[in-house]
Predict the 3D structure of the following.
Amino acid sequence: MAMFTRALSLTARQLSATQQTRTFVNNMAVKKWAFNLSGFNQYGLYHNDVYFECDEVKEAIRRLPQHLQDERAFRVQRALQCAVMKTVLPKDQWPTFEEDREKGRYLDSYLDEVRAEIAEKAEWSKNA
């Protein structure tokens, strides 16, 4: 009986560890499927290119180095041109999922910085 209980608890621990690391949202196959389903890659856009340009995002874009701003502007203008022409880019010009994960999150660090500054300003104004 003790051996059965020990085996059962070991299996439960292994199962809980598996469930914590592999969830539906954390599954790379699902993320890749969602990336391809979004269709933004067909226009040559990265993940951060399609952010709604609120004040925080505009400030983060302003803080980008000039070459990243130029690359972003080119991708957005090319996507607009494709949308006007009702076409998509040739498949060899589509960013891959791996390329999007590597280069497509270029704005996140700047956006985190902007949000931290806004929170700090709000904290200072609350204490004043």
Q: What stands out?
A: The mean pLDDT is 87. The first helix runs from residue 2 to 21.
